[in-house]
Amino acid sequence: MDITQAKSIEISDKHIFEKYFKDFEPEISEFTFTNLFAWQEFYEFLFLEYNNHLLIFSKNFLQEKKSPISNLDDVLYFLPPIGENPAKMIFFLFRAIKSLEIHKIPNKLSNKIKEMKEFNELNLELKDDRDHWDYVYNKNNLLNLSGNKYRSKRNHLTAFLKIYDYEFHLINNEWLEKCKELQNKWCITNECQKHKDLKEEQKAISRMIDNYSQLNFRGGILLVDNIPVGYTFGEILNKDTGVIHIEKAHTNYRGSYQAINKLFIENCCQEVKYINREQDLGVDGLRAAKLSYHPDHMINKKILYKKLL
Q: Could you read off the pLDDT of 218-234 as tens digits, one per residue?
C-alpha cells in the first residue's frame, strides 16, 4: 500500500464515498460525505481505496490540532476503514504503518477487534472516546416530547407555537442565503471569533452552504414575522437513522430550538426511526443539553493505538 497516492477529498469524489456508504451502511455520524467534505479543511483529510476498502486519514491532525495518545512521532489519524472486513484491514494498517491511531471506532467493531488474536500480537490498546460518542434518539420522543421528563421542553414548544407567527420552509438556494445571514448573526451573538471551535464550525457551515447543490443534504429554516430565527441541516445516515449536522436558533425567541427540531424532523426525516444528534465534544453545556433530551442509546466510540513496549 502506497499512502502517498492518497488525495484530498473534493466535491467530485462524492460518488466514491456514496458507493461505500450504500454498500456498508454507516453507524457513526462522521460517515456522510457532507460531514467529511465540510470538515476537510480542519482535518486535512486524505483518502484512498485499497483492497476494496475506503481509507480516510490525516497526516497533520495529530501534529497540529490534537495530541496523539501514542507517544510517537508523526502519528497518522485514521477513521475506521469502510469495507467488507474493516477489522482485518485495521490489523493490516498497524503492520504496514509505523505510527497511527484509529479514531471513532464504534462498539461493534471494537468488540470484534478485541476478540481477535492480532489485537494482542500487535500490542494494541483501546481507549474510550466519550467526548465523541453519538447521541441517538427515538424520533417519536423528539417529535412528541411526551411524558413528565419532557415537560419543560414541551412547555417551551407550546409557547413558541402559540405566541409567534411562524413559518417553516425546506431549504433551497434562496433560503440558504438566509441561513448564512442567520449563522453570521448567531456568530456575532456567540462571539465565534473568540472561540476556535466555533470559528472552525463556521467554516464547515460555509462549505456546506456553498456546495449545497452538489452535496444535496436536507435542511429547513424557521421564520417569525418573516425574520429567520433558526435553521437545521441534516440527512439520512442509514436505513433507520437520520443525522443532524447543524442546528442553530436565536434563544430570544422562546422555544425556538424545540420548534426547529420538531419541524425539521417532521418534514425531513419521515422514513427513519432514530435521530442521531452527533457528539458533545466534551463541552459541559452541550452534554447537559443532549442528555436532557433523553437519548434512546449512545454510539460508543473508541481510539485504537499501539502500546509502547
A: 999 999 999 999 999 99
